[in-house]
Design brief:
The protein is an alpha/beta fold. The protein is 33% helix and 21% strand. It folds into 2 domains: 242 residues, 3-Layer(aba) Sandwich (Peroxisomal Thiolase, Chain A, domain 1), CATH 3.40.47; 150 residues, Thiolase/Chalcone synthase (Peroxisomal Thiolase, Chain A, domain 1), CATH 3.40.47.
Amino acid sequence: MPTFPRIVITGVGLTAPNGNSHAEFRANLLAGRARIATVDVRYMGRHPAGVCDFEATRYQRRKELRNGTRAGSIAIYCAREAVADAALDWGGADKARTGVYIGITEHGNVETENEIHSISQFGYDTKFWTHHHNPRTVANNPAGEVTMNLGITGPHYTIGAACAAGNAGLIQAAQMLQLGEVDLAIAGGVSESIHTFGIFAGFKNQGALAHHADPAKASRPFDRNRNGIVISEGGALYVVERFEDARRRGARVYAEILGWCINSDATDAVLPNPGRQSECIRIALKHAGLEPRDIHLVSTHATATPLGDIQECHALRAIFENCPETHINNTKSYIGHCMGAAGALELAGNLPSLDDAVVHPTINVDHLDPECALPGLVLDTPAQAGRVETILNNSFGMLGINSVLIVGKPRP
């Protein structure tokens, strides 16, 4: 068996509905502060949604914002914040040996919908169709916009993995670093989903779009009265590098990437398969050389759909039933479902637990669904764990794609 280099996370950059920095995001999770707005959706009226309010002009000129995409802008903000957080000598970095790997749920719907709406005002005359449409809608757009903004000449691409994409971006980065394809990576996930009415309409017609009188309580994973997904935008990107390189430059290390798995249900386009989810978790544990009892924090994917939450709980119960040191939480209860960014943001919210052993709670669970009553589930208030040395991050998506990422406390 080949020996692969250890891979670590040394920088975090994010924007979420309830925070535009890692510190703000974490503080709001510990304080139980959700931040969900109500937005006007074209043709559909008002619906709860997670909206980010970051300072885009910190890293982009206004012309670049006009010509680019919302997903690209989110990605640039997160990438720049991550590079700064990692204390990289960016001027001296080898840009040709830097890779950009960004997970997305979908890309291009927003721009195409907007253009169709625009030309509808002019009798559908395509001379009013913007010449920026093609570069805006190609699938590699968010990663490509990052390379142009940061002057990166190494490989870039997006990973289309539905709502498993945030994990998939990090997994791709770890694999490319282990193979020696790059020496530094910027990876994670982004989403601009709230700007496309098609996603809202699709979920509504599936009976999976959340509604609640108080938008801050609309996202209710595990609650008996949950009624669907709160669609949100956001992003979280990481600086990922080999441990030896990080140690050589004296970098602070947030976590080591220990193991992962991506697999497929091959059963249904929408309904999750708990057997395949359990299998994905077990393979990731084997890859990391860990047993279930070695996991101290499980970050759930649960989106607040009635059947989806139950299926994941079945998968988790099959593995973590007799693990008294394992705590379980959910982040979508604060920020809604950030689609391609979900897994990356949820990991970011839990990373500080490796230092302080505090597990942020799941909120908005007024009446716990008995079928979601997992051992170790943290509700309402933070839990002081005896120790948090490992985190298992679940992210699952449509067409039966499952991703599990395991990170651990940095070792010497």
